[in-house]
Amino acid sequence: MEWDNSQFLLIWIVFSILWILAQRISERHQRSFRIFIVLFAVGWLWMRFNLFPFEMIFGILLSLVTSFIFWLFIGRYNPVGNPDDEGIKVYGMDD
Q1: How far apart are CA 45 and CA 37, in angstroms?
Q2: Within 13 Å and on the Cβ side, how many CA atoms surround 83?
Q3: Fewest CB atoms within 10 Å of the CB: 8, 28, 55, 67?
Q4: What is the pLDDT of residues 70-85, one digit of tens each?
């Protein structure tokens, strides 16, 4: 089995960004975005690149670990606000 580090790094970076974005969007859109991520993994990456299954699975699992670390240190202390509950807040206005 040959490892192509550039493809592995690409998978890791792309999926890390996608999983972190899935954490930071509103709750009602999270499920559809996660379904998009899974379809993206199966459809585009598997067909586009000639990847070994282990390389792709390892890259996705490493991106999940990266996403968990992001949630552990940043995400749980800064929850995503719900745009329906909050209006636009202008600081400095007493109205």
Answers
A1: 11
A2: 6
A3: 28
A4: 999 988 888 776 666 6
From CA 93, how far away is CA 95, in angstroms rounded?
6
Residue pair 80/27 in contact by the 8 Å Cβ criterion: yes
Amino acid type, 74: I
How many residues appear in the chain?
A: 95
Summarised one tens digit per residue, pLDDT across range 11-70 is 889 889 988 888 888 777 888 888 888 887 777 766 766 666 777 788 889 999 999 999
Two structure tokens written together for 45: 């990456």
Indicate the DSSP class of residue 82.
P
Q: Which residue has the tokens 């929850």?
A: 79
Angle at 47 between CA 3 and CA 53, to 5 degrees: 40
Tokens of 22: 């899935």
Q: pTM of the entire structure?
A: 0.70
Nearest to 55 by CA among 8, 10, 15, 19: 8
